[in-house]
Design goal:
Length: 464
């Protein structure tokens, strides 16, 4: 089964119906700031890769439109960075918004056309001035032939030349201000720029410069969705080891750090989304959905390995395939083992392969990948015992247990659980030990790896 990448469905009548991460309070608070701001303003939404930034800004956009009547456009910088000029792409999005929201409005069309002409003038004057100064050639009549040649290596110089052409820039700002005021004279206009940190480094910097120097216009608000750490690396790749915090403060008025999502709730939502109970029932498999089932193992691993939302969903996608190809003879412990091995492979595939090849031992896996403190001694020992037994022969497993039993302390509850797990044999299969189970799951994991898996965010179940 190939899972296609789709965005979360946002219901216009109930914006937060599919909000499984409880973002509503944060969005309400930000909306109050945005809706009462008339000055030029740049807000950044900072979160790690895979933490749900895109979903957050799309919910914020819908909420602003529904509850505050604020018009906005969404601009994916990553999808647009094929363009040589961010300014043209942004104006193109505004023009599209006007065409869709105000079809046939002659005043807005006239103002939009004027802004487009002034955009071309700003770009042409800036590039022409630089090329003429660098080569002695006047390219006013043949600008298109030299743009490609100079645009990549001279972008920062071009930005400076834009700044010196005060007349063109003032007229450009005035035209944009009149355009936005005609769209809505009362409320601000918001431009969401998403995935800035995923762009080519030079494009990211150019876009920030355009926002700072050309769009400093009353009632125009930019909201940047970024991974600040990654964006900082992009800036350093162009400018060297500079103080990126100070650099970004030139462009960003207010930084908002997106809180860590509730991973337990996210796991529960995915369990319903992929309808695992239906698949399990169809196979005639009975699973105890109590304390130690595979869903709770997933929650434990998500927190202890500090998995991102995207990593968590990748694991669930693998698990979905696994459920469709399993045989009825498998047990709940197989599912827990599968979750553990998939998580390790997704988090660090090189480390997983070294572990499979027995080039490293279980202690390295635990030390490198499991960091968060927990109070769940039983699950701690389930994880440890699975890794200890993994990819070992029966004799190796037996020797391992014998060593533990020689130093057995009846008062040590963790050691009791550990030995019990390592000695595990299920039902009528008393000789089918933990290492056998791990090897069975390893083969299933290799099968699921052959699929090209993409994340589908379109069908989160409604909260109950």
């Amino acid at each position: 089964m190939i899972i296609k990448n789709k965005e979360i469905v946002i219901d216009g009548s109930d914006v937060f119906a599919n909000d499984v991460l409880d973002r509503k309070d944060s969005i309400d608070n930000l909306s109050q700031i945005i809706s009462t701001t008339n000055d030029p303003f740049v807000l950044s939404i900072d979160a790690d890769w895979g933490a749900g930034k895109t979903t957050f800004v799309r919910l914020l956009k819908a909420h602003l439109e529904k509850d505050h009547q604020i018009q906005s456009i969404y601009f994916s910088a990553w999808e647009e960075d094929y363009s040589k000029e961010p300014l043209v792409s942004i104006l193109g999005k505004i023009n599209k918004h006007i065409d869709e929201k105000f079809p046939g409005n002659e005043k807005l069309t006239t103002l939009s056309n004027l802004a487009n002409k002034l955009t071309a003038r700003v770009i042409t004057r800036g590039i022409s001035a630089f090329v003429k100064g660098s080569t002695g050639v006047d390219v006013e009549g043949g600008i298109s032939e030299v743009v490609t040649e100079f645009s990549e290596k001279t972008a920062l110089d071009l930005i400076e030349s834009y700044k010196t052409d005060e007349d063109a820039i003032k007229k450009f700002k005035r035209s944009i201000g009149e355009l936005l005021s005609s769209i809505d004279s009362e409320n601000p206009f918001v431009i969401f720029i998403d995935e800035l940190d995923r762009c080519r480094p030079l494009y990211s910097i150019e876009l920030l410069e355009r926002v700072k120097h050309l769009f400093n216009i009353d009632k125009l608000i930019f909201i940047l969705s970024i991974d600040k750490e990654q964006l900082s690396e992009s800036i350093k790749s162009q400018y060297g080891n500079i103080d990126t915090d100070n650099y970004l403060r030139r462009f960003i008025d207010l930084e908002y750090r997106l809180k860590n999502p509730n991973k337990d709730q996210f796991c529960d939502a995915l369990f319903l989304k992929y309808d695992f109970e239906k698949d399990i029932s169809a196979k005639g498999i009975k699973i105890d959905f109590g304390t130690y089932n595979h869903v709770n193992m997933m929650k434990y691993i998500a927190k202890s390995m500090d998995l991102s939302l995207r990593e968590i969903e990748q694991i669930f996608i693998h698990l979905s395939i696994f459920f469709k190809v399993i045989q009825p003879k498998l047990f709940d412990i197989h599912f827990r083992i599968f979750v553990l091995l998939v998580a390790i492979k997704i988090k660090n595939s090189n480390l997983y392969l070294q572990f499979v090849d027995k080039k490293i031992n279980y202690e390295i896996i635990l030390n490198k990948l499991f960091h968060s403190e927990t109070t769940d001694d039983h699950t701690d020992m389930v994880v440890k015992s699975t890794l200890m037994a993994a990819f070992n022969s029966k004799d190796e497993l037996k020797d391992m247990v014998n060593k533990l039993e020689k130093g057995f302390n009846e008062k040590d509850e963790k050691q009791q659980i550990l030995i019990g797990q390592l000695n595990m044999g299920i039902g009528d299969f008393k000789d089918y030990k933990l290492n056998d189970m791990v090897n069975t799951i390893k083969n299933k994991l290799e099968f699921s790896d052959q699929f090209n898996l993409e994340i589908d965010n379109s069908e989160f179940p409604l909260k109950k």
